[in-house]
Amino acid sequence: MDGKYVPIAEARIPITDWGFLRSDVTYDAVHVWRGSFFRLEDHLARFGRSVAALRMDTGHGPEATKEILHECVRLSGLRDALVEMGCTRGTGPPGSRDPREFTNRFFAFAVPFVWIAKPEKQLEGLHLTISTVRRIPPESVDPKVKNFHWGDLIRGLYDAYQRGGETAVLVDQAGNVTEGPGFNVFMVRGGRVSTPARGILEGITRLTVIELCAEAGIPLEETLVHADALRGADEVFLSSTAGGILPVTTVDGKSLGDGAPGPLTMRLRELYWSKKEAGWHGTLVEYH
Ligand SMILES: Cc1ncc(COP(=O)(O)O)c(C=O)c1O
């Protein structure tokens, strides 16, 4: 924070920072697994695009950012970590409401790895609800710029809990599936994988699934996925830095297939973990 490494509990931003007051902030979240960053360059590139789209300046180039992230992990000593980098609009001169006059604030931190669903739960599968809450349209807030506009996603979560679900996916105005709180969505029908093409953050784990399918010769399409198609899918799974490939076994309370995590989902999940542990897309952390 502000050029210093501090214990996470001491990391603070001023209450007047527009990152807090206006959700005027972008960030990225990469993970370290067994002492190795996964797809660090891809996360840095996405973060760079997000910062540029918001007309911000972190004051650090990609190499310096990379070194800061390494140092956060080294200082934490964590072998499995969630590592975030972010940039807020920051604070401006007294009384100013002109974002061009603000000094942006860069931050980065490492915390223990976070799971959307623990591995034990992944073997059972998740209960997904298709929320009645609509995702903020991409014309209003660009979902490709990773952001804190989670009002719709959090409403979606409460909507899901009320209806007996564990997590939610939000649809757009036309009823097409977008994404959920921290994940992208995939479905399998007749051996073919599809995932929403628009209205989403282009997840790095989503990209990983696309690559895994290409390598394994599994047909995959980035397209429109209507909520009804998701309800009628053979298999559904989620993808996220926070947990990898997460099987879904019910949609809106109805079981998919035989009610167990699907075979194609489990094959991709197995590939994801085994290839990662073998160093695929990895950057080793040099611990002290
Ligand atoms: C809204 C949203 N969609 C999708 C994702 C998944 O992206 P990634 O695979 O890069 O973690 C995230 C990750 O936090 C997210 O916040």
Outline of the structure:
With 288 residues, the protein is of the alpha+beta class. Helix content is 29%, strand content 28%. The protein folds into two domains: 8-112, Aminotransferase class 4, branched-chain amino acid transferase, N-terminal domain (D-amino Acid Aminotransferase, Chain A, domain 1); 119-277, D-amino Acid Aminotransferase, Chain A, domain 2.
Structural features, described:
By secondary structure, the chain is an alpha+beta fold. It folds into two domains: 8-112, Aminotransferase class 4, branched-chain amino acid transferase, N-terminal domain (D-amino Acid Aminotransferase, Chain A, domain 1); 119-277, D-amino Acid Aminotransferase, Chain A, domain 2 (Alpha-Beta Barrel), CATH 3.20.10. The chain has helices spanning 18-21, 40-53, 62-76, 119-124, 151-162, 204-216, 227-231, 263-277; strands at residues 25-33, 36-38, 81-91, 103-112, 126-134, 167-171, 184-189, 192-196, 220-223, 235-240, 244-251, 254-255, 282-284. Strands 5, 6, 7, 8, 9, 10, 11 and 12 form an eight-stranded mixed sheet that branches. A five-stranded antiparallel sheet has the order 4-3-1-2-13. The mean pLDDT is 97.
SSE layout and pairing:
Layout: H1 18-21, E1 25-33, E2 36-38, H2 40-53, H3 62-76, E3 81-91, E4 103-112, H4 119-124, E5 126-134, H5 151-162, E6 167-171, E7 184-189, E8 192-196, H6 204-216, E9 220-223, H7 227-231, E10 235-240, E11 244-251, E12 254-255, H8 263-277, E13 282-284
Parallel strand pairs: 5-6, 5-11, 8-9
Antiparallel strand pairs: 1-2, 1-3, 2-13, 3-4, 7-8, 7-10, 10-11, 11-12
The structure holds pyridoxal-5'-phosphate (PLP).
